Structures are given as structure tokens and as C-alpha cells.
Design the sequence.
């Protein structure tokens, strides 16, 4: 009898999000083709098969998507200059998307960001159809948005743009559990406590991505009920509402330093994830648990 397990390609499989996605996929019985740049860095899990190379290489892209059920893309060189971000994400990711389309892969799940939305002071709650940033919105948000738009131009493929805000979770490469706290330790301690801190835990994010990649969320005519078949559908994914008093205060407390509270105008709205919840997603990590994990990691 032929193996009916889903076969899912995951780029950036050694990263914070990619590695957790691999784990979530294996838990759902999928076979994972983990694409990494360096040999020996893919998760060491039964069902995960490492593929080394550049996903934007047309030959590797064609080979790795052959016979796959879905493709998950997680790579974006955040922190690199704008040109590098453009080359890797805006130009490179569609190469893999077109290869998937040509191979008959039904779904592509792309990790975008809620940073594409305008969250200026005075802007209210933000949903999938809210206004996006302009050309001056910053290198990361703009190149992320340009990548989303480039993927939307790849027709004949059901594309999911998953848009998380700050991603919490332990890991050496974690921006919010490791890198940002290091900046606070070095003296960057200013923040307005009222500013909204939109967040999601990496395990909850990975759970939604794995459900989308394995077809647990069915296509629908209305994007509020599920992805649009053959089209591009955005979905915001976020945990419960929090502020910078919650996050920055926890970091400073754990590090034994005093926060420097400011009062400049800030965004105080909510990132609304009702669409993801209607699709059946329920986050399991609440704010208290996320802050406890953060505190433990910094105090240990």
C-alpha cells in the first residue's frame, strides 16, 4: 500500500519558526523535506529529511517540491540590508513558489509578518484588510510586503500569507526571548508602557502553519471560513492582548534593571486574529505562560 502521509517542504528548517514547524508536522504524521543552507542543521527527527542548498536555485527548487503536498517558506534575512532582503525574499521566494505551482503542489504557506500593517499612533485595531505600510515603512516590513505581493502574482497555487507579530519562544536566535533582551541588558531600556505588544508563541504559530500545510483547514468560498482555492489569503495570528509594560517590564525585572518609561505617542490597538480562530486555531500559550518562559530563560 502506498504511503499516504503528507509530504511538506519547509525552508529555513533550522530556524526558530522552521524547526518548530518541522516538529508540528511530524506530530501530524507528515514527512518533511527540510531545506537548510548548512549540512547537519535540520531537526533530528524521524520523518525529517534534510536537503542542503539554496531554495532559490531553480534546480533545487524543482527537485525538492516534486511530489510534495505543500510548501512552507520561513526564510527572510531580517537584519540584513534592504538589498539582501529583497534578493533573498522578494526575488528568491517566488522561485520556489513557481516550482511548486509547476509541480502541482496544491498549497504554499508563507510566513509573512503583521509588520506589514500600519500600526502608527492613533490607528485602531488591525485585521487582515487593514491599511499596510507605505514605501517608507522600514526595510523589513516593506520587503516582507513586497514578498507577499510577489507571491500573490504566482497564479495556479493556493497561497496562505500567515502574519504573526512578535514571536515569543526560547531559542538562541529568538528576537524577543534572546536578542531584544540582550539589547536591554546593554542599556536600551526606553519604552512607552501603554504601547500595544502584539505577540504569538512560536509553538502556537507552528501549530497553525502545520494545520494549513496538511490540509486540516479546508478551502472555502469565503476567506473567513478558509483559504481561497487558487488564490492568496492572508491570516493574522496573535495571542491575547498585551502591552510593553507586560513584555519590557518582564525583561527588565528578569535582568535586574529598571525600565525607562516614556510617553511618546504609540499604537494602542489590538491585532485581531478572529479569522484564524474561525479556521479552528486556538492558541494554547497564554500571556502568563509566555512571560514565565521569558523570565525563566533570562534568570537562569
Sequence:
Amino acid at each position: 500500500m502506498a504511503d499516504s502521509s503528507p509530504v511538506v517542504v519547509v525552508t529555513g528548517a533550522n530556524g526558530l519558526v522552521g524547526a518548530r514547524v518541522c516538529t508540528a508536522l511530524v506530530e501530524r504524521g507528515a514527512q518533511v523535506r527540510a531545506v537548510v543552507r548548512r549540512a547537519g542543521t535540520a531537526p533530528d527527527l524521524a520523518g525529517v529529511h534534510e536537503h542542503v542548498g539554496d531554495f532559490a536555485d531553480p534546480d533545487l527548487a524543482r527537485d525538492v517540491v516534486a511530489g510534495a503536498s505543500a510548501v512552507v517558506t520561513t526564510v527572510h534575512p531580517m537584519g540584513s540590508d534592504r538589498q539582501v532582503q529583497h534578493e533573498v525574499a522578494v526575488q528568491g521566494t517566488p522561485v520556489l513558489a513557481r516550482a511548486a505551482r509547476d509541480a502541482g503542489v496544491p498549497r504554499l504557506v508563507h510566513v509573512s509578518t503583521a509588520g506589514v500593517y500600519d500600526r502608527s499612533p492613533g490607528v485602531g485595531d488591525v485585521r487582515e484588510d487593514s491599511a499596510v505600510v507605505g514605501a517608507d515603512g522600514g526595510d523589513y516590513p516593506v520587503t516582507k510586503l513586497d514578498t507577499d505581493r510577489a507571491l500573490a502574482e504566482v497564479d495556479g497555487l493556493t497561497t496562505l500569507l500567515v502574519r504573526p507579530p512578535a514571536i515569543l519562544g526560547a531559542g538562541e536566535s529568538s528576537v524577543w526571548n534572546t536578542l531584544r533582551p540582550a539589547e536591554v541588558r546593554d542599556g536600551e531600556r526606553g519604552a512607552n508602557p501603554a504601547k500595544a505588544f502584539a505577540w504569538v508563541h512560536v509553538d502556537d504559530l507552528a501549530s497553525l502553519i502545520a494545520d494549513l500545510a496538511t490540509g486540516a483547514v479546508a478551502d472555502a468560498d469565503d476567506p473567513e471560513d478558509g483559504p481561497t482555492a487558487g488564490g492568496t489569503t492572508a491570516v493574522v495570528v496573535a495571542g491575547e492582548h498585551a502591552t510593553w509594560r507586560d513584555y519590557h517590564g518582564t525583561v527588565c525585572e528578569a535582568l535586574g534593571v529598571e525600565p525607562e518609561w516614556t510617553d511618546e505617542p504609540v499604537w494602542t490597538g489590538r491585532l485581531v486574529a478572529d479569522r484564524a480562530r474561525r479556521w479552528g486555531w486556538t492558541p494554547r500559550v497564554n500571556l502568563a505562560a509566555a512571560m514565565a518562559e521569558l523570565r525563566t530563560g533570562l534568570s537562569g
